[in-house]
Amino acid sequence: MKKIFILTGEPSGDKLASKVIGNLMKVNPNIEYLSVGGENLKKLGIETIFDLKEITYLGFTRVFLNIFKINRRINETVNEIIKFNPDILLTVDSPDFTLRVSEKVKKKLKKIKTIHYVAPQVWVWRKGRVKKIKKFIDYMLLLFRFEKPYFEKEKINCEFVGHPLLEEQNLAKIDINQIISKNKALISIFAGSRTSEINMLMPILIDFIKLMNAKYNDFTYIFHSTNENFSLVKSHTSKSEIKNYEIISDEKIKSHILRKSIFAVSKSGTVSLEICNAKIPSIIIYKMNFINFLIIKMLVTTKFANIINIAAKKEIIPELIQDKCNPKNIYNTVNEFLNNPVKIKNQILEIDNILSSFKTEKPSTELASIFINKIIKQC
Question: Which of 338, 278, 350, 279 is nearest to 314 (CA)?
């Protein structure tokens, strides 16, 4: 039986991997799996060698403070992969962790095929990484068409498969009336999937809600969380004075909630595409400690943080980053949209034009699984 080791580094990667592997299991049930994954891969019955939380760090300073722990985890992961002896190592996103593991594994298992899913953002920073990557990555699965030239230039085998979050979803019918108030409009809030993100953004978001509550009394705020982070989000909200909120961690319910929302406030990241695909108007927020921000500011070569804005070369989705990420600015920006239906309509129309260039004829998870299945048959 052929073997695949799936290596993820954070919850968003776990979610993306599970969509592809779930489809691969249908077309080829004769594959054995082992992983570093989270709740989504576990739901597929795939064992993880340790908890994903143990390697999910945010920012340069946190990585530096945990450098010995991270290096230990990298070496432990390499040893477990070698012991498992897979035909394919499928690494997903989180390049600073997953690619370091892949490089070490490739040196010891010469015949293994390495596939990286979700290319590192060399179009944002550190373009020189591509020359190094080609030494140990056999195939690169790309989410966006515009990424191809960066990797083809260095003769890396790459395949555009599209983004799973842009696939049409056949949502099961779920009654959410018992979860939310029938008489209140919903605003979805995404505070991140990493502990440090949540701790940084939740106090800001709670103060934003307090400002909104001073003006409106007809909104319910829905915090979208993973199961692992539910208690952490709850610890922040329970210490606040706000009452008109819910915390949702069930993936099936979250999709329904998002589509019922009139607006979304989201940390910068992958989830923004899911919000855009659901045609929900939104803004992007993000904040990190000052040292991390200075380092990133020196390295980043793009003007925008959000992929939609980067592709459009203009700010379609407002970005409230660092100093701009404060309760008053979030409140003012959200109010501008809520009081201007034309502004909302224009944002959604412009986003749709950008998303059309990201989409594929077949579901992206199907394309990715077909590609992986083709490679494993060659092993």
Answer: 350
Chain segment 107-166, per-residue pLDDT in tens? 999 999 999 999 987 766 566 778 889 999 999 999 988 889 889 988 999 999 998 778
Q: What CA–CA distance (Å, rounded) separates 198 from 138?
A: 35
Number of Cβ within 10 Å of residue 137's Cβ equals 24
Domain ranges within the chain, ordered by starting residue: 2-162+361-378, 185-356
Type and span of the H or E element at 117 = strand 113-117
Cα 62 from Cα 258, distance rounded (Å): 31
pTM of the model: 0.75
> What 8-state DSSP symbol labels residue 165?
G
Q: Fold identical between 2-162+361-378 and 185-356?
A: yes
Which H/E stretch holds residue 115? strand 113-117
Q: What is the DSSP string of 241-300?
A: S--SEEEE--HHHHHHHHHHEEEEEEESSTHHHHHHHTT--EEEEE---HHHHHHHHHH-
Strand pairing partners for 261?
A: 186
Q: So what's the architecture of 2-162+361-378 in CATH?
A: 3-Layer(aba) Sandwich (3.40)
Give dist(CA 77, CA 226) in Å, integer. 24
| pLDDT tens digits, 298-315 | 666 678 889 899 889 899
Cβ count within 10 A of residue 3: 17
Return the CATH superfamily for domain 185-356.
Glycogen Phosphorylase B; (3.40.50.2000)
Q: Which of 207, 208, 213, 186 is nearest to 333 (CA)?
A: 208
The number of residues making up the chain comes to 379
